[in-house]
């Protein structure tokens, strides 16, 4: 029997399938089978220089902030989700984000961080914290379209871009962790694109409001990239610009202002 491909389903059945817990359980099993906190247990850590270790710890601390932001936002949105399918999807995303956070905190402990939460607070990217505050404001206002756009499009696109950028040159354990998490981020982005795409067909005027939110949040994302480039040891301006360009291309591909 061939591997099941949900894209062979009708649009209605596809929508129901990818929002289901059953699909999520199968996806998570595929991503995590045989791993230990997101990486293969046979992998051993490399030896880091003091500079490399400092960069890596700072970077992972900020990954923790992004994942905790998504955890808080997705759990908050369940309360005002527009339909049961969206609420179910968000409940799977809550578990994803909680798992990502756990994996990154565990990685910090592996790197010798005794008190991860104090370290995360001390190394926090200020632009990322401002983004978090704005996203959670949209959640508190129960603004579904704006909140799902800020989280499942902008935040997920930001994480997806940075994780993919770091993955090729990361140490083996971090690379393995990022490879698994990127698969989740792609699923979360797909939900945001699908949900907003259907709503924009029904209410095209909503795009103008989301474009304004995009213009408001994109500078915070780009500022985060500038700081992250330094944290990753990316000294060449063209590499930093490439990360920003990849993110902006993703937002533009979705049809929103950049």
Summed up, what is this model?
The chain is mainly α and 258 residues long. The chain contains ten helices and no strands.
Description:
This protein has 258 residues and is an all-alpha fold. The chain contains ten helices and no strands. α6 (126-140) runs antiparallel to α9. The longest helix has 31 residues, at 172-202. The radius of gyration is 18 Å and the shape is globular. It starts with 10 loop residues before the first helix and ends in a 5-residue tail after the last helix. Residues 1-7 have low confidence and may be disordered.
| CATH fold-level name | Ribonucleotide Reductase, subunit A
On the 0-100 scale, what is the average pLDDT?
A: 83
| Largest β sheet strand count, sense and barrel closure | none
The percent range for helix content is over 70%
Termini Cα gap: 45 Å
**Which CATH C-level class is it?**
Mainly Alpha
Query: CATH superfamily name?
Result: Ribonucleotide Reductase, subunit A
- Along the chain, the helix and strand elements come as HHHHHHHHHH
- The low-confidence runs, each spanning 5 or more residues with pLDDT under 50, are 1-7
Helices, by number, come to 10
CATH architecture: Orthogonal Bundle
**3D shape:** globular
Name the structural class. Answer: mainly alpha
In total, the number of domains comes to 1
Radius of gyration: 18 Å
Topology, number of strands: 0
Strand content: under 5%
């Amino acid at each position: 029997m061939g591997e099941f491909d949900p894209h062979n389903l009708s649009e209605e059945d596809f929508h129901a399938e990818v929002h289901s817990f059953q699909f999520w359980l199968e996806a998570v099993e595929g991503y995590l089978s045989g791993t230990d906190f997101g990486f293969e247990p046979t992998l051993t850590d490399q030896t880091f220089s003091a500079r490399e270790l400092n960069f890596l710890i700072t970077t992972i601390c900020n990954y923790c902030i992004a994942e905790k932001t998504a955890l808080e936002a997705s759990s908050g949105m369940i309360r005002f989700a527009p339909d049961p399918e969206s609420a179910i999807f968000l409940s799977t995303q809550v578990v994803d984000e909680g798992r990502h956070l756990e994996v990154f905190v565990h990685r910090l402990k592996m790197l010798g961080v005794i008190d991860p939460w104090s370290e995360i607070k001390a190394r926090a990217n200020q632009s990322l914290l401002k983004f978090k505050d704005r996203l959670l404001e949209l959640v508190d206002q129960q603004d579904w379209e704006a909140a799902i756009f800020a989280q499942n499009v902008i935040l997920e696109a930001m994480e997806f871009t940075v994780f993919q950028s770091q993955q090729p040159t990361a140490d083996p354990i971090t690379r393995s962790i990022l490879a698994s998490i990127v698969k989740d981020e792609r699923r979360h982005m797909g939900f945001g694109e699908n949900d907003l795409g259907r709503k924009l067909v029904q209410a095209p005027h909503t795009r103008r409001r989301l474009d304004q939110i995009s213009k408001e949040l994109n500078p915070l994302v780009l500022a985060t990239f500038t700081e992250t480039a330094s944290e990753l040891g990316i000294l060449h301006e063209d590499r930093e610009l490439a990360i920003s360009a990849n993110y902006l291309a993703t937002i533009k591909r979705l049809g929103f202002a950049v």
